[in-house]
Amino acid sequence: MITVVGMGAAAGAAPAGDVAAGAELVVGGRRHLDAVRLPEGVRTVVLGALAPALDTVAEYVERGRPVTVLASGDPGFFGIVRALAERFGPEPLDVRAGVSSVAAAFARVGLPWDDAVVASAHGRDLRTAVNVCRAYPKVAVLTGPGAGPAELGAALRDDGRVFVVASALGSAEERVERVTPAEAAARDWGTAVSVVLCLDGARALGPVRALAGVRPGPAGWALAEDAFAHRDSMITKFEVRALALARLGPRPGDLVWDVGAGSGSVAVECARLGAAVTAVERTPDGVGRVRANAAAHGVDVRVVHGAAPAVLAGLGEVPDAVFVGGGGRELPSIVAECARRARRCVVVAVAALDRVPAAREALLGAGLDCDGVLLQSSRLAPLPGDVTRLAATNPVFLLWGVRPHGRTEGVAP
Q: Is residue 353 packed enough to be buried (19+ CB in 10 Å), middle (13-18) or exposed (0-12)?
């Protein structure tokens, strides 16, 4: 039997000193080992690299000797239970969960967290946590070396969020501080940070929901054009948008650019599907429309006012996917720059036949695999006399370039 004990996340929740009684091997972080009464002659392993610790546990398990593993909070929540179950199976595990650091942090600030999104940046790329923080109003980020409040704050300083930084939860040194992202970026937080809550203050107390965590996806997408404010029918038609969304594949943790956003219909739809979105628009009235449409649909879209491709150089981020919906004579250079930056794919909508070859060459020149289709649709339209005709929409070329799997050498910030 491997007894896994969660400890320390809630005030006064440290387990009694004899939790390791009967164990012949006790594994845990240094502060956890120091907090318990160890049996006489017991062997201890201070957790650092996980693989050697698991090998030592295996030696005792194979001989049928009792092992205790000490962990923070709830060890089944982004914790060591996963690694133990993968190595030994769940049957020998006796898990005694404590209060998770996420639950404890939300308790300290008096907020429910059933509607919070939880992202782990411990030993992982910080960009996923950053993108989730941009897309959702209530996020808890489990931190790690090189991915703490300072790094998170530097990435989110312009996104209007508030941080709650919870350090050493449940200990005498516990601190829970509210700071702006800029303030977080300017400090050295040390190694005691347990979790960072990233909150949109106006929406932190969300509505009652039946499902926890990431909000359910929308009931439908490729919304009708009248779901968005737009100018003179200058909007990506829903048939085109449907295929563009299928090729972009926006999801929680992704960052999508909508370049030449116009009404922002593609940007809003990507945000509704859980992605963080940056919309680039060169006209002041277009910027206003994108913001109004995002607000009307209850999503966050970062809007950048400027003309591509020049304005793209100022975006200090690497998108997962890019939609290019405008560009004129600058289209080839815009597509080339987006293809150089995108991690996964670039989708281009082109109305003018003359511009298709150059856009395709720009995708191929960036090392992407390119495909495309000409979309021609006719919609049902009423006629006098209670009859119906087919009304043709303008044909649109949709091109997409996909980065070959595993090839990221062309991606540049």
A: exposed
Instruction: Give the residue carrying structure tokens 């977080």.
Output: 184
CA dist 145 and 125 (Å) reads 11
Q: Are the beta carbons of 346 and 339 closer than 8 angstroms?
A: yes
Compute the residue count for the chain.
Answer: 413
Sheet holding 369-375, edge to edge: 302-305, 276-281, 255-259, 321-324, 345-350, 396-402, 369-375
411 — pLDDT class (breaks 50, 70, 90): low
Q: Are the C-beta atoms of residues 21 and 49 closer than 8 Å to each other?
A: no
Answer whether 401's CB lies under 8 Å from 364's CB.
yes
pLDDT digits (tens, 9 = 90+) for 21-72: 889 999 998 888 888 888 888 999 999 889 999 999 999 999 999 999 999 8
The chain-wide mean pLDDT, for the chain, equals 92
Phi and psi at 125, nearest 5°, equal: -65, 130
Inter-CA distances, 307 with 205, 280, 283, 317, 358, Å: 37, 8, 8, 17, 19
The pair of three-digit structure tokens given for residue 297, joined into one six-digit string: 């649909």
Q: Would the CA dihedral through 365, 366, 367, 371 be positive or negative?
A: negative
Q: Torsion over CA of 54, 57, 61 and 65, rounded to 10 degrees? A: -170
Residue 24: exposure state from Cβ atoms within 10 A (0-12, 13-18, ≥19)? middle
What is the Cα 145 distance to its own chain's centre? 19
Do the Cβ atoms of 240 and 377 come closer than 8 Å?
no
pLDDT band at 325 (very low <50, low <70, confident <90, very high): very high
The answer to whether 271 and 296 are in contact (CB under 8 A) is no
